[in-house]
Amino acid sequence: MAEETIFTKIINGDIPADIVYQDELCICIKDINPQAPTHVLVIPRQPIPRLVDANEEDKALLGHLMISVGTIAKQLGVEDAFRVLINNGEDAGQTVFHLHLHILANKKFSEDSLAMS
Ligand code: 5GP
């Protein structure tokens, strides 16, 4: 069996985290090392290592994650300006191999590129 990720430990309550939203399929926590004044992570309870590892069976879950992003953005009051990011693979900056969506907001985003700074 694959080793538990830090996010599974958080989901199971074995490690503390600042939880901003949760439902039956996902949890949203504040990032421990925020890259913007608002930086949260939306994490499915079911551990899918990378986005590329998701398949047809995960369609409803992936849709739920995207809808949850909107719900959470509204809850945080950032619905008019936020960015969503998924790192897929080590060379793309993925450090935790349990799919998660970053929501970043309340910073001035570069208008002409996808760069975060
Ligand atoms: P990745 O680099 O895999 O796309 O993003 C992983 C994110 O998880 C990073 O932004 C990192 O700061 C965050 N992170 C890593 N460990 C913890 C932790 O124990 N608690 C919380 N809240 N965030 C974490």
What does this structure look like?
The chain has 117 residues and is an alpha+beta fold. It has one domain: HIT family, subunit A. The chain has helices at 6-11, 59-76; strands at residues 19-22, 26-30, 38-44, 82-85, 101-105. Guanosine-5'-monophosphate (5GP) is lined by residues 6, 17, 29-33, 41, 87, 93-96.
Topology, please?
Layout: H1 6-11, E1 19-22, E2 26-30, E3 38-44, H2 59-76, E4 82-85, E5 101-105
Antiparallel strand pairs: 1-2, 2-3, 3-5, 4-5
This protein binds guanosine-5'-monophosphate (5GP).
- End-to-end separation in angstroms reads 39 Å
**Largest sheet properties:** 5 strands, antiparallel
Helix-strand topology string: HEEEHEE
- Provide the number of structural domains: 1
Tell me what portion of residues adopts beta-strand conformation. Answer: 15-25%
Count of helix runs: 2
| Rg measurement, Å | 14 Å
CATH architecture assignment name: 2-Layer Sandwich
The CATH topology label is HIT family, subunit A
The main sheet orders its strands as 1-2-3-5-4
The bound ligands are:
guanosine-5'-monophosphate
Number of strands: 5
Q: Which regions have little confidence, pLDDT < 50, spanning 5+ residues?
A: none
Structural class from helices and strands? Answer: alpha+beta
CATH superfamily: HIT-like
**Overall pLDDT score:** 94
Coarse morphology: globular
User: What fraction, in percent, of the residue positions are helical?
Assistant: 10-25%
Name of the top-level CATH class: Alpha Beta
